[in-house]
Amino acid sequence: xxxxxxxxxxxxxxxxxxxxxxxxxxxxxxxxxxxxxxxxxxxxxxxxxxxxxxxxxxxxxxxxxxxxxxxxxxxxxxxxxxxxxxxxxxxxxxxxxxxxxxxxxxxxxxxxxxxxxxxxxxxxxxxxxxxxxxxxxxxxxxxxxxxxxxxxxxxxxxxxxxxxxxxxxxxxxxxxxxxxxxxxxxxxxxxxxxxxxxxxxxxxxxxxxxxxxxxxxxxxxxxxxxxxxxxxxxxxxxxxxx
Amino acid sequence: xxxxxxxxxxxxxxxxxxxxxxxxxxxxxxxxxxxxxxxxxxxxxxxxxxxxxxxxxxxxxxxxxxxxxxxxxxxxxxxxxxxxxxxxxxxxxxxxxxxxxxxxxxxxxxxxxxxxxxxxxxxxxxxxxxxxxxxxxxxxxxxxxxxxxxxxxxxxxxxxxxxxxxxxxxxxxxxxxxxxxxxxxxxxxxxxxxxxxxxxxxxxxxxxxxxxxxxxxxxxxxxxxxxxxxxxxxxxxxxxxxxxxxxxxxxx
Lengths: 242, 252
Hints:
Chain A is an all-alpha fold and 242 residues long. Chain A has helices spanning 2-14, 21-35, 40-61, 71-110, 113-119, 124-162, 167-175, 181-206, 212-241.
């Protein structure tokens, strides 16, 4: 309980006395590049292959003659939009971005860089963490949109190249029974997950004490806690919004 | 002038500082010496506001740091320059950006004025040609000098140095000591240095306090330190064989 209390106090400190807006804007742009742009490659690879595999495996299981082949594309689309793109992408980002944030802040803590900021009278948590949180909440939804698109495209490639579904059936399937609300749901998830991953990882890194070994532990703990929180939030959001 | 009054600090019930009081004079180099684990760094952190003492006050020219409102506290912080043990340079910024950082964050002066001030400070520490280099590309001694440049860029009234000679070769140590001494005298600032280095004590230390297990056991000027009768201080000073032999020769 004390850890949760400390986490909420830490969140409160982010909104304490801040610095000039121009400073935050510059830091936000730097973090958006570091968190968002540098994650495009891994997100693209993971989502394309997940889309491809989900198409092949769905087709493998749908062997009934009374189910139209286009249903494969419909299932791939809904799986991507509702679950795979937002959740799996954010789990991957929890590993990449979460460990990066925790180790960066942990190293800054043990090398007294955070102390240096505090001595200058700078709100170190707000200056260092707030731009990361905002950047994660801003870029994660974009990465998830990209992931959903590439996932569906991966399914198309795998399905048409292997012959399990024709191009016409696939294109028909992904447009069939489409619920636009699902797109909204897909974008809400990474917004929440981004907040959780950035704040939990920052918390782990910010309060690191000791040396290199503790930075490693903080990084591992950040990824573990972020993944667990993403899965819990995923369930709660599904329950609340669907 | 900085005055510390009855500073007490304990961690997990273990007392690290036991009622330490002293006065650090303006325009002079004040040293806090003592063995490892005697509370020197904790005392420094209490003075600069990184660790709040359990009891006691720190007064900056009469302004009580811990009992001041936020604005006064902020004003005092802006009068401080701190050189951390490892330099504490921001890894993602160049030397020049590190030195400019306090100006960017805490002032509204024009970019041209910032550049002029940064160039002056880098020149002052002899690093005018290293502004574009990253901290990972420079030596330990250079990092300390960049740390000093960053500490003086805001024209501080108080300069704190946490073991400025640690990890440096003797020649570089002397250069860093001389630089700190020159800056202290040039800008009439109150400098507080934590060190174990007896060379620094004898070369640049004007006022010295000796901590032992959280207590202040001795205070005085450096020329008196070898005449002390405090056994713990004697043991600390004469741990170095060269000094021991020199003391024997001089019948200290």
